[in-house]
Amino acid sequence: MQPQITVSANERLIRRGAATLGCLLAAGWMLGAGAALDRARAQTTVETTTAAPQAVPGFWDPRHRPDRPDLSRLTVIRFLTETDYPPFNYTGPDGNPAGFNVDLARTLCEEIKVTCTIQMRRFETLVDALSSNRGDAIIASLAVTPELRKRIDFTDPYYRTPARFVSRRDAAMAEVRPEYLEGKKVGVIAGSAHEAYLKVFFTDAELHGYPNEETLRQALRQNEVDLIFGDAISLAFWINGTDSESCCAFSGGPFIESRYFGEGIGIAVKRGNDVLRQALNWALFRIWEKGRYTDLWLRYFSVSPF
């Protein structure tokens, strides 16, 4: 990464995991999209011992519906996104931008009833492009950090990057508590926020540090550890991909403590652009309320990180 953007350690984990899966996912995950959506609608709860639950993140409180802002000043929204971060942003077979973030941007523009353009750029150039008025908003899985808040404003989070435990499929646990892991061997990437979290809250577990995701996941496949703990988004794609050889499943639910795993992922706008920020917040709530966010999430995540 270039110095223009400060990227959290958690986001680096996501991006490395996505890069490993890139071509495979871009070619294959959409094949099961319709089936995944049908299954999720027909069966809202799936036993952890057989498959990861089809949970959809929601960060909007129905008791706090935002007022409809004045949208008359918005005629076009120029979205900026990243070039290669599947399934969130990538170039589609027709050469046009595609992915979860891209479809979400288009859905927001439909809700606001405004023209929408989407330009793909290298990730490290996005904030400078926004600051120099080459775009109006960044929708590129950009993690909200105190450093970036000094340069740009963010909408409310539209997803988070939770942490989760993964075990071998035949040993999956419906719930994970510190006392359940007493004496258990738990793999984690050494020096990560995930390791720091385990050291504070899972003191009776036997921690084993690994240098990267590949060695961490191999340790679980080879029964060197009982569970691994890491970024749930990259782990969800691994569980559902060919590299895992259907070995493993999530155990327990997500951990989203912001002190360790970040404030979430938001849409960035120029500092002081409250008109656009409020419009996007209103539209995010509206598409969640209508179920369109749920449909979009399930289209891209057949194994939910949540």
From TrEMBL:
The keyword Signal applies. It holds the Pfam family SBP_bac_3. Keywords: Signal. Residues 76-304 form the Solute-binding protein family 3/N-terminal domain. Signal peptide: none annotated. SMART domains: PBPb (SM00062). PANTHER family: L-CYSTINE-BINDING PROTEIN TCYJ, MEMBRANE-BOUND LYTIC MUREIN TRANSGLYCOSYLASE F. This is ABC transporter substrate-binding protein. It comes from Nitrobacter winogradskyi (Nitrobacter agilis).
